[in-house]
Amino acid sequence: MKVVLLVLYFAVLIGIGLYCRKHATDVDGFVLGGRNVGPWLTAFAYGTSYFSAVVFVGYAGQFGWKYGIAATWAGIGNALIGSLMAWFILGRRTRVMTRHLDTATMPQFFEKRFGSKSLKIGAAIIIFIFMIPYTASLYNGLSRLFGMAFSIDYSVCILLMAVLTAVYVIAGGYMATAINDFIQGVVMLAGISAVIYAVLESKGGFMAALDGLARVTDENYSTPGIFASFFGTDPLNLLFVVILTSLGTWGLPQMVQKFYAIKNEQAIQKGTVISTLFAFVVAGGCYFLGGFGRLFSDQIDIKANGFDSVVPTMLSGLSDGMIALVVILVLSASMSTLSSLVIVSASTLALDLIKGNFAKDMSDAKQVFLIRILIVVFIAISAVLALVQYKSSVNFIAQLMGISWGAMAGAFLAPFMYSLYSKKVTTSACWTCFIFASVLMSANMLIRPAFPAIMQSPINSGAIAMLAGLIIVPIVSAFTPSPDKKLVDDAFKCYDEKIMVPLSTSLNSEK
Hints:
Blueprint: H1 2-19, H2 27-32, H3 39-50, H4 53-67, H5 72-101, H6 106-114, H7 117-150, H8 154-201, H9 206-214, H10 235-247, H11 253-260, H12 265-290, H13 302-305, H14 310-315, H15 320-354, H16 364-390, H17 397-421, H18 427-446, H19 458-479, H20 485-492
C-alpha cells in the first residue's frame, strides 16, 4: 500500500509538471507564472514553501521536547505573524511596486528601487550562499521517515526527492510548482490532522496524553507539570523561536516572491485568509504534536540520535496506512519547499549575476534555458551537501535552517519592508543591514563558542539579526545621503495610480 500510494503521488506531480510546460516559455511565465496566479494557489504555495520536513521533524521534535506543549506558540506565531501580518503588510505593496519596477527577483527589486547594481549583486550573493544550507536541511528529516517506513538507505531518499523535484520544476516552472503545492497542501492539511489524532489516541486521547505530559519530570526543572504549562520551560528562548520562524518570512526571497505573482486584489484578500488558516492547522499542528514527544521518552535517546529522532519515533508505532500518509505528508512539505527554493536560487543567479555581468545579451528563451540548467545544479549541490552534512557533526536540522533564515531574513527584511513604505531608506542602510546579518550568522556558524550564551544558538542569533535590522535601517538612513528624489518618486508613483473599483470595495462621496 505504501509503495502504491507513493507511485501514484509521483505520477501526479510529474504529470502536472509536463502539463504546465505551456506556461513556462518565457522568464515571466517560468519564474512568476505570468503574475496571474489566483488566491488558492498563491496561499497554498506560500504555506507549503513555509512548512517542510524542517518544521515537521526538526523544529517540532526539538522544541516540543524542550518546551512541551508551549511549543504550540511557535505555530500560532507562524499563523498570525508569518502569514496574516505578512500578507497584510507586504502583499499588496509588494505586488504593486514589483510590477511597476518590472522585477522578478528580490535582488532586481533592490537594484531598481535604489538604482544600485551593486545592491543587486550583493543580495544575489547572499541568497546564493545561504539558500543552499537551507535546501540541504530539507533532506534530513525526510530521510529519517523514509528509513522508518521503507528501510531505504539515506542516499536513495535524497536521489529520489532530488530527481522528482527537478523533473516537475524544470518542465513547468512556477505554475507547475504552484499547482503541485496546492495538492501537497491538501495532503498536509489532511495528514497532520490524522496524525495528531492517531498519536494522541495511542496515548489514551488528548486529556490522558496531557495528563501524562504533566507528570513528566526532568532533573533540570523542579516545577511540577512544566511540560504541560502555558509558557513551558524557557519563555525567552521560545520567544526567539517564534520571532525567527514567524518574522523571518517577511524577508525570505522564496516567501516574498509569492506576492509578486498574485493575480489581483481579490486574490490578496482571499489569500490572506487561506494562508493564515493553513498555517494554524499545519504549523500549529506540527508544534502541538511535537509537544507530546516526552511521552515517548522511553523509546528516544536524545544523546545518541538527536532531536530529529523525536517525531519519527512518535510515528513509528502507527499502522502501515498512517505511516504511508505521514511519508507523503512530509514528502509533500519538503518537495514543495525545495521546488520554491531552487526556483528562487536559480532565477537569482541567472537574472541577477550572470545576465548583464557575464552575458550581456540574452533572449528570453536563453534565460529560461539557463534557469533550468541552474535548477539542476542547485538541486545537485544541495543533495551532495545533505550527504556530507549527514556524516558530519551538524546533526540538527534546526541549526542549518536557523543560520540560513537568520542571514537572509536579517539581511533583507528591514530594507525590503521599509522600501515599500518609506522614501527615506538609503543604499547605505541596505548595505549595512546586508553586511551585519551575513557577518553575524557566518560568525555564529564558525566561532559559535565565542558568542555570549544567549546568542550561541543560531535561532537566537537569527532572531536578533532580524530585529536589529529594523533599528539599523532607519538610523543609518537618517545619517547617510538621501536617495535620488526622482528615482524614489518614480518608484512610489505606482501607489498613486487611480483605478475604478466597485462600491463593495471602496465607498466614494455621494452628492
